[in-house]
Amino acid sequence: MMKEKLKLAILDMNNNVPNQGLRCIKEIVETFHEDIAYRIFDVRAKGEIPDSSYDIYISSGGPGSPLEEGIWREPYINLMQELWDINKAQNEIKKHVFFICYSFQVICNYFQLGEIKPRRSTSFGILKVHKTKKGHNDILLKDLNDPFYAMDSRDWQLIQPRLTVFKKHGAKILSLEKIRTHVELERAIMAVRFSEEFVGTQFHPEADPISMEAFFKLEENKQIVINSFGEKKYEEMMDRVDDPDKIEMTYNTILPNFIKNALKMIQQPVMS
Question: For 16-75, what is each residue's pLDDT tens digit?
Fold first, then answer.
């Protein structure tokens, strides 16, 4: 008896902009190579959209406005609605979807869970994220400290949650951004469980400490951070990048937990 591998689709939302995230997602997925076969779809740049035959979907972060009306948007949303509908049908094998940053903003906007608005300034660095009560017990976050640390890189955010819509969908807020005692600004929502199978984060759980450190040590990238955010922010980030209790723990926990849980919940067919 030979076990048939589950199919995983990586949805590349980077729109041809160079990034580290896609490689990091691939590396995490490849650790499950005995159970999973994957394919990458270039959604925004090439309009590549998978069908609903995949078991697991990971939709990446990306640049630009999550409200943009690209030609990819309607097919992408249609796919997500189809997967959602499949999950609502009791007799179907469930489809598991993880949304990262840009994708998280797109789907939160589609479900009308709150306001998707530009930030006053870019949030960038390895920052504290606080669990909510519901986040403490969630399979995604339960193995992490509270607060835990994550790579944050965003110009947009989800704020002002529509709690009646959350209740209608059965969605839960799992984490919030760092507490800022010195400013009167609403804290952004950093992770949402939309359903048992749909979940997403505003931050980048795929950020790998080794490659992140190498990337930001390069002089060109170092100067971009210093010019944009200041030397103090750069030094803070480099101090945190190789701490095993910070993004290394997040990297080893969130996406792996999501994939392990999906594998556990999906009944895998066997081939004779």
Answer: 998 889 999 999 999 999 999 999 999 999 999 999 999 999 999 999 999 998 999 999
Q: Answer whether 12's CB lies under 8 Å from 49's CB.
A: no
Report the pLDDT value the prediction gives residue 269, as an integer from 0 to 100: 43
Domains, the chain, ordered by start = 2-208+246-271 (3.40.50.880)
Sort strands 96-100 and 198-201 into parallel, antiparallel or unpaired.
Answer: parallel
Tokens read off for 211: 């490659």
- pTM of the complete model: 0.91
What's the first-to-final CA gap in the chain, in angstroms? Answer: 5
Rg (CA), the chain: 18
Q: Residues of 230-264 as b/e, b for ≥16 C-beta within 10 angstroms?
A: eeeebeebbebbeeeebbbbbbbbbbbbbbebbbe
> For helices 209-217 and 231-241, what crossing angle results, to 10°?
150
Closest CA to 111 of 188, 41, 50, 192: 192
- Give the whole-angstrom CA distance, residue 212 versus residue 201: 19
Name the CA dihedral angle for 203, 229, 221, 10, rounded to a multiple of 10 degrees: 20
User: From the DSSP assignment, how many helices (H) and strands (E) are in the chain?
Assistant: 10, 11
| Residue 129 and residue 175 in contact, taking contact as beta carbons nearer than 8 Å | yes
